[in-house]
């Protein structure tokens, strides 16, 4: 009698790992031992990023939330990803960019512990981010730096946050050069590789607080979030209209997650330009979906908004792991499995991309006006 095959098991890989060895690379460990539960989700995340999102025909946008740069992930992971051309544009909280700047200015942060006496820390002039300690003077020095550069003539006009971060990144890169520091700042690396970084809530950080002070002094700098909405949509439209794919790599959730995803509804819903949604969705989060919060919203929910192409749901992964655990592993896996890509330097193409999406909208607008619609 022929041996029966159990339905649903045909073609599935058995769980049969090799013993873990001390000389395994991170990529080998992930492929061999991460076979179930969130370990397997993390392997799927690594493979989605390395095997599909990093193809030459895919533009990768990343969103960044949580205090990741204070933990050193800017230096250990984000800068290498930018230098390898593995991230093409980014939406970050202002806090991550502010704390990133400490390192570019030669200031220090230290490993502490979460059970510290915060009253005693305050009296000692020490600031705590969970188990990270730093001197209160670090804040004052970084505040002074941002106020000093933002008073310069080149900043005295309305601009999107990408322009502000690009100009600020040049000053941080110069400070690193003067101090003879190796590349330590994400802002400086983004400037060097012309990778645009946006902030969805520019007033919600110490950078925004210092710029608000300059407004009281009568300076002309204004961060225009509407420019950011149009520029990020233009990045996605420029890729998709040329037959390229769009991928989103989401670390955490919050406002940056929505900002990187809302590019598609901006194109489809608001502008009325035909499009089908992002092609790849990778999220690292600890947020639950059942509370209704955006941070935990799943790729399938995003489909209902037009954010994700419904035909590409198999190419989505949500991994419920702390970003400080997942990002170094994903970065190591990508470095091992993919050759560097040529950075797209999208900041330098903003005007062209804006012209392209404006032209596409003008076609729609004329049709609307002809039909008597607004």
Give a structural overview.
The protein is of the alpha/beta class and 374 residues long. It has a single domain (38-370), classed as Deoxyhypusine synthase (Deoxyhypusine Synthase). 48% of the residues lie in helices and 11% in strands. The protein has helices at 26-33, 37-53, 73-83, 94-104, 118-124, 136-150, 161-178, 186-192, 206-216, 225-240, 254-261, 263-270, 299-304, 323-337, 350-370, and strands at residues 58-64, 89-92, 110-111, 126-129, 132-135, 158-159, 197-198, 222-223, 245-251, 280-284, 316-319. It has a six-stranded parallel beta sheet, sandwiched between helices. A three-stranded antiparallel beta sheet has the order 3-5-4. Helix 2 (37-53) crosses helix 14 and helix 4 (94-104) crosses helix 6 (136-150). The mean pLDDT is 94.
């Amino acid at each position: 009698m022929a041996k029966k095959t159990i339905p649903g098991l045909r073609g599935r890989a058995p769980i049969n790992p090799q013993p873990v060895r001390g000389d395994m690379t991170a990529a080998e460990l992930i492929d061999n031992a991460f076979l179930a539960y969130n370990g397997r989700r993390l392997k799927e995340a690594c493979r989605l990023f390395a095997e599909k999102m990093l193809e030459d025909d895919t533009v990768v946008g990343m969103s960044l939330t949580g205090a990741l740069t204070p933990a050193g992930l800017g230096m250990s992971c984000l800068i290498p990803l930018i230098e390898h051309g593995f991230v093409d544009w980014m939406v970050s909280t202002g806090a991550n960019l502010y704390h990133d700047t400490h390192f570019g200015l030669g200031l220090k942060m230290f490993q502490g512990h979460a059970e510290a006496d915060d009253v005693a820390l305050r009296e000692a002039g020490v600031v705590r981010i969970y188990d990270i300690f730093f001197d209160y003077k670090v804040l004052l020095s970084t505040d002074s730096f941002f106020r000093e550069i933002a008073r310069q003539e080149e900043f005295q006009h309305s601009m999107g946050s990408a322009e502000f971060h690009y100009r600020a990144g040049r000053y941080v890169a110069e400070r690193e050069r003067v101090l003879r520091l190796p590349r330590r700042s994400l802002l400086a690396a983004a400037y060097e590789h012309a990778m645009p970084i946006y902030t969805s809530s520019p007033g919600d950080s110490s950078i925004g607080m210092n710029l608000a002070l300059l407004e009281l002094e009568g300076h002309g700098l204004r961060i225009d979030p509407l420019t950011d909405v149009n520029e990020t949509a233009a990045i996605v439209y420029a890729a998709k209209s040329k037959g390229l794919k769009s991928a989103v790599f989401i670390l955490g959730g919050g406002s940056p997650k929505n900002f990187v995803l809302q590019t598609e509804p901006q194109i489809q819903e608001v502008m009325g330009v035909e499009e089908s949604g992002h092609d790849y969705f990778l999220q690292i989060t600890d947020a639950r979906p059942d509370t209704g919060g955006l941070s935990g919203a799943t790729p399938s929910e995003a489909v209902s908004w037009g954010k994700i192409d419904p035909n590409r749901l198999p190419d989505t992964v949500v991994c419920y792991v702390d970003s400080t655990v997942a990002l170094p592993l994903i970065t190591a896996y990508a470095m091992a499995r993919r050759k560097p890509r040529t950075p797209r330097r999208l900041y330098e193409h903003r005007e062209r991309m804006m012209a392209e999406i404006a032209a596409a909208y003008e076609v729609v607008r004329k049709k609307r006006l002809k039909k008597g619609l607004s």
